[in-house]
Design goal:
The chain has about 200 residues and is an alpha/beta fold. The protein has six helices and ten strands. It has one domain: Alpha-Beta Complex (Spore Coat Polysaccharide Biosynthesis Protein SpsA, Chain A). Strand 7 and strand 8 form a beta hairpin. Helix 2 runs antiparallel to helix 4. The protein is globular and about 45 Å long. The mean pLDDT is about 90.
Protein backbone atom coordinates (compact mmCIF):
# COMPACT_ATOMS: atom_id res chain seq x y z
CA UNK A 1 0.00 0.00 0.00
CA UNK A 2 1.33 3.44 -0.91
CA UNK A 3 2.41 5.67 1.97
CA UNK A 4 0.45 8.92 1.75
CA UNK A 5 2.78 10.70 4.20
CA UNK A 6 6.09 10.07 2.44
CA UNK A 7 7.36 11.19 -0.95
CA UNK A 8 10.17 9.73 -3.06
CA UNK A 9 12.94 11.58 -4.88
CA UNK A 10 15.06 9.96 -7.62
CA UNK A 11 18.25 11.72 -8.67
CA UNK A 12 19.07 11.03 -12.32
CA UNK A 13 22.14 13.25 -12.70
CA UNK A 14 24.50 13.22 -15.65
CA UNK A 15 25.98 10.49 -17.82
CA UNK A 16 28.10 7.46 -16.96
CA UNK A 17 31.52 7.32 -18.56
CA UNK A 18 32.31 3.87 -17.15
CA UNK A 19 29.18 2.27 -18.61
CA UNK A 20 29.16 4.29 -21.83
CA UNK A 21 25.62 5.64 -21.70
CA UNK A 22 23.25 7.20 -19.20
CA UNK A 23 22.45 4.67 -16.47
CA UNK A 24 18.81 5.73 -16.32
CA UNK A 25 18.11 4.59 -19.88
CA UNK A 26 19.89 1.23 -19.69
CA UNK A 27 17.63 -1.61 -20.93
CA UNK A 28 16.67 -3.84 -18.01
CA UNK A 29 14.06 -6.57 -17.86
CA UNK A 30 12.08 -5.36 -20.87
CA UNK A 31 12.07 -1.74 -19.77
CA UNK A 32 14.63 0.92 -18.79
CA UNK A 33 16.33 1.22 -15.43
CA UNK A 34 14.54 4.47 -14.56
CA UNK A 35 11.13 3.07 -15.54
CA UNK A 36 11.79 -0.04 -13.44
CA UNK A 37 12.82 2.10 -10.48
CA UNK A 38 9.81 4.40 -10.67
CA UNK A 39 7.43 1.45 -11.04
CA UNK A 40 8.92 -0.16 -7.94
CA UNK A 41 8.65 3.06 -5.93
CA UNK A 42 5.07 3.52 -7.09
CA UNK A 43 4.13 0.44 -5.06
CA UNK A 44 4.85 2.38 -1.87
CA UNK A 45 4.75 6.09 -2.73
CA UNK A 46 2.01 8.28 -4.16
CA UNK A 47 4.30 11.27 -4.76
CA UNK A 48 7.46 10.65 -6.80
CA UNK A 49 9.79 13.39 -8.05
CA UNK A 50 12.58 12.68 -10.55
CA UNK A 51 15.36 15.28 -10.66
CA UNK A 52 17.19 15.21 -13.99
CA UNK A 53 19.86 17.23 -15.74
CA UNK A 54 18.82 19.92 -18.23
CA UNK A 55 17.45 18.30 -21.37
CA UNK A 56 20.29 19.70 -23.48
CA UNK A 57 22.83 17.85 -21.30
CA UNK A 58 21.15 14.46 -20.92
CA UNK A 59 19.63 11.64 -22.90
CA UNK A 60 15.90 11.97 -23.33
CA UNK A 61 14.05 10.16 -20.57
CA UNK A 62 11.11 7.89 -21.31
CA UNK A 63 7.65 8.96 -20.17
CA UNK A 64 7.51 8.35 -16.43
CA UNK A 65 4.75 7.93 -13.86
CA UNK A 66 6.35 10.70 -11.83
CA UNK A 67 6.91 14.44 -11.71
CA UNK A 68 10.11 15.26 -13.61
CA UNK A 69 11.98 18.46 -12.77
CA UNK A 70 15.16 19.67 -14.42
CA UNK A 71 18.23 21.01 -12.69
CA UNK A 72 19.07 24.51 -13.92
CA UNK A 73 22.81 23.75 -14.00
CA UNK A 74 24.25 20.57 -15.58
CA UNK A 75 26.32 18.24 -13.40
CA UNK A 76 25.80 20.36 -10.28
CA UNK A 77 26.01 17.26 -8.08
CA UNK A 78 23.67 15.23 -5.87
CA UNK A 79 23.46 17.83 -3.09
CA UNK A 80 21.97 20.41 -5.46
CA UNK A 81 19.67 17.78 -6.98
CA UNK A 82 18.44 16.66 -3.56
CA UNK A 83 17.76 20.29 -2.65
CA UNK A 84 15.56 20.66 -5.74
CA UNK A 85 13.83 17.38 -5.01
CA UNK A 86 13.03 18.22 -1.39
CA UNK A 87 11.69 21.60 -2.45
CA UNK A 88 9.36 19.87 -4.93
CA UNK A 89 7.86 17.02 -2.89
CA UNK A 90 4.35 17.14 -1.46
CA UNK A 91 5.02 15.59 1.94
CA UNK A 92 7.08 16.40 5.03
CA UNK A 93 9.68 13.73 4.29
CA UNK A 94 11.00 11.86 1.28
CA UNK A 95 12.96 8.73 0.50
CA UNK A 96 15.83 9.83 -1.77
CA UNK A 97 17.87 7.58 -4.02
CA UNK A 98 20.04 7.60 -7.11
CA UNK A 99 18.69 6.20 -10.38
CA UNK A 100 21.19 3.31 -10.53
CA UNK A 101 19.54 0.88 -8.09
CA UNK A 102 18.07 -1.95 -10.20
CA UNK A 103 17.06 -4.07 -7.20
CA UNK A 104 15.56 -1.28 -5.11
CA UNK A 105 13.05 -2.57 -2.56
CA UNK A 106 10.18 -0.11 -2.14
CA UNK A 107 9.00 -1.85 1.03
CA UNK A 108 12.40 -1.28 2.61
CA UNK A 109 12.34 2.36 1.51
CA UNK A 110 8.91 2.91 3.08
CA UNK A 111 10.01 1.11 6.24
CA UNK A 112 12.95 3.50 6.58
CA UNK A 113 10.44 6.34 6.47
CA UNK A 114 8.43 4.76 9.27
CA UNK A 115 11.51 4.94 11.52
CA UNK A 116 11.72 8.73 11.27
CA UNK A 117 11.06 10.23 14.70
CA UNK A 118 9.96 13.81 15.26
CA UNK A 119 13.43 14.96 16.29
CA UNK A 120 15.15 13.25 13.35
CA UNK A 121 16.07 15.11 10.20
CA UNK A 122 17.02 11.91 8.39
CA UNK A 123 17.12 8.12 8.55
CA UNK A 124 20.23 6.76 6.82
CA UNK A 125 21.21 3.08 6.43
CA UNK A 126 24.76 1.93 7.09
CA UNK A 127 26.09 -0.82 4.77
CA UNK A 128 29.69 -2.06 4.85
CA UNK A 129 30.40 0.65 7.39
CA UNK A 130 29.31 3.44 5.03
CA UNK A 131 26.31 5.74 5.34
CA UNK A 132 24.05 5.25 2.33
CA UNK A 133 23.11 8.89 1.81
CA UNK A 134 21.41 8.12 -1.51
CA UNK A 135 19.22 5.38 -0.10
CA UNK A 136 17.86 7.40 2.80
CA UNK A 137 14.93 9.39 4.12
CA UNK A 138 15.13 13.16 4.63
CA UNK A 139 12.69 15.64 6.08
CA UNK A 140 11.76 18.48 3.77
CA UNK A 141 13.34 20.90 6.27
CA UNK A 142 16.75 19.51 5.28
CA UNK A 143 16.46 21.73 2.20
CA UNK A 144 17.29 24.73 4.39
CA UNK A 145 20.47 23.05 5.65
CA UNK A 146 21.41 21.96 2.12
CA UNK A 147 20.95 25.49 0.80
CA UNK A 148 23.25 26.90 3.49
CA UNK A 149 25.85 24.19 2.89
CA UNK A 150 25.86 24.83 -0.85
CA UNK A 151 26.14 28.58 -0.29
CA UNK A 152 29.34 27.90 1.69
CA UNK A 153 30.75 25.86 -1.18
CA UNK A 154 29.93 22.40 0.16
CA UNK A 155 28.91 19.93 -2.54
CA UNK A 156 29.16 16.51 -0.89
CA UNK A 157 26.11 14.85 0.63
CA UNK A 158 28.50 13.32 3.14
CA UNK A 159 29.14 16.83 4.39
CA UNK A 160 25.44 17.24 5.08
CA UNK A 161 25.29 14.38 7.59
CA UNK A 162 27.07 16.16 10.52
CA UNK A 163 24.64 19.06 10.15
CA UNK A 164 21.57 16.88 10.73
CA UNK A 165 19.98 14.83 13.47
CA UNK A 166 20.43 11.42 11.83
CA UNK A 167 19.06 8.06 12.88
CA UNK A 168 21.35 5.41 11.39
CA UNK A 169 20.10 1.89 10.64
CA UNK A 170 22.56 -1.00 10.67
CA UNK A 171 22.73 -4.07 8.48
CA UNK A 172 21.15 -6.40 11.02
CA UNK A 173 17.94 -4.39 10.94
CA UNK A 174 18.07 -3.91 7.16
CA UNK A 175 18.45 -7.64 6.50
CA UNK A 176 15.09 -8.33 8.13
CA UNK A 177 13.47 -6.94 4.98
CA UNK A 178 16.32 -7.38 2.51
CA UNK A 179 18.43 -10.41 3.56
CA UNK A 180 21.03 -9.95 0.81
CA UNK A 181 20.91 -6.13 0.82
CA UNK A 182 20.16 -6.13 -2.90
CA UNK A 183 18.31 -2.84 -2.58
CA UNK A 184 21.73 -1.21 -2.17
CA UNK A 185 23.31 -2.80 -5.25
CA UNK A 186 24.14 0.01 -7.66
CA UNK A 187 25.46 0.14 -11.21
CA UNK A 188 28.89 1.71 -11.57
CA UNK A 189 30.52 -0.48 -14.21
CA UNK A 190 29.64 -2.69 -17.16
CA UNK A 191 30.26 -5.67 -14.86
CA UNK A 192 27.63 -4.36 -12.43
CA UNK A 193 25.18 -4.01 -15.32
CA UNK A 194 25.86 -7.58 -16.45
CA UNK A 195 25.31 -8.82 -12.90
CA UNK A 196 21.98 -6.95 -12.70
CA UNK A 197 20.82 -8.52 -15.96
CA UNK A 198 21.67 -11.98 -14.63
CA UNK A 199 19.76 -11.37 -11.39
CA UNK A 200 16.70 -10.18 -13.27
CA UNK A 201 16.87 -13.15 -15.65
CA UNK A 202 16.82 -15.44 -12.61
CA UNK A 203 13.71 -13.69 -11.35
CA UNK A 204 15.36 -11.87 -8.45
CA UNK A 205 13.75 -8.71 -7.22
Amino acid sequence: MADSKLSAVVLVGGGSSRIGRHKATLPLGGTTLIERLVAELRRAFTDIVVVAAPESFAEALPALDATVIRDEVPFAGPAQALLLGLRSVSHDAAFACACDLPMLNADLAAWLGSLLEERNDAVIPVVDGCLQVLHAVYRKRCAIVLERMLARGGRSLGGLVPLLDVRSIGEEELRRLDPELRSFFNLNTREDYAAALRLIDFGAK
